[in-house]
Amino acid sequence: MFQLASTTGSGSILGLVGPFVLMFVVFYFLLIRPQQKKTKTRNSMLKALKKGDKIVTIGGLHGTIVELSDDIVVLRVNDVTKLTFDRGSISHAVTVAEEKE
Asked: Closest by alpha carbon to 92, among 26, 29, 48, 28?
C-alpha cells in the first residue's frame, strides 16, 4: 500500500516538470536561438566594415565610411559634412542591388 503511493508521487513530479522542460525547449527554438543567430550575423557584419562602404544607421541616415576605429565610425553624408557615430549604431551596409532600387 505504501509502495503504490510512492510510485504515484514520483509520477506526479515528472508530470509537473515535463511541461516546463517542454516549454523551455519551445522557447529556445522559437525565441532564444534565432536571436542568437541574428546577433552573430550583425556582429560579423560590423566587424567586416571597411572604408568606402555605404551604410545606413539605425536612425535612417545614409552615408559612406571615411574613418573607422574599434568603436567609432566617421561617415561622409555629402561632400562637406562628416558625422561621427558609434559602430553599434549602424543598421546595415547598402549593397549595389539595394542602391539601384
From this structure: 48
